Amino acid sequence: MMKKSIVLCILNLLLFWFVCVYYHHWQNTMLRSTVKAPVRLFLMEIKCDLDNADYANASDKMNFLIQKWELFYLSDGLDAGIGNILPEWNETQGSSTK
User: Fold this and answer.
1) What torsion do the CA atoms of 74, 78, 81, 82 make, to the nearest 10 degrees?
2) Within a 13 Å sphere around the CA of 14, how many CA atoms are in the beta-carbon half?
3) Which of 2, 10, 77, 78 has the maximal Cβ count within 10 Å?
4) Where are the domains of the chain?
5) Can you tell me the distance from the alpha carbon of 37 to that of 43, in angstroms, rounded to the nearest whole number?
6) Rounded distance, CA 29 to CA 47, Å?
7) Given this model, what pLDDT does residue 77 score?
């Protein structure tokens, strides 16, 4: 009887460990696809502007990124998404030139 309880406990611990590892992997994948990639692309655009000595545009993009990141951070990523930062930037630029 005691042996069955120990085996059952070990199996439960292994299942719990598997679920935790899988959940962590899933969260990391979601973070990479919804935050890391779009922000990385936006930072690459800022670097390109700096390389081309377009400091005003780089500064505007950096301020936009800071503003979006602050909203994302304050809402814990629930209300304000940052994954569509490039389309939002392009939209604000399109509306400001009209």
Assistant:
1) 50
2) 6
3) 77
4) 2-97
5) 10
6) 25
7) 64
Cβ–Cβ under 8 Å, residues 45 and 57? no
> Which residue do the tokens 């973070």 mark?
31
Enter the tokens of residue 36: 């890391």
**What's the rounded Cα separation, in Å, for the pair 83 and 13?**
36
One-letter identity of residue 56: A
DSSP symbols for the chain: -HHHHHHHHHHHHHHHHHHHHHHHHHHHHHHIIIIIHHHHHHHHHHHHHHHTT-HHHHHHHHHHHHHHHHHHHHTTTSSS--TTHHHHHHHHHHHHH-
- Per-residue pLDDT reduced to its tens digit, 69-93: 888 877 766 666 777 888 888 888 8
Q: Report yes or no: 5 and 51 within 8 Å, Cβ to Cβ.
A: no
- Residues found in the chain: 98
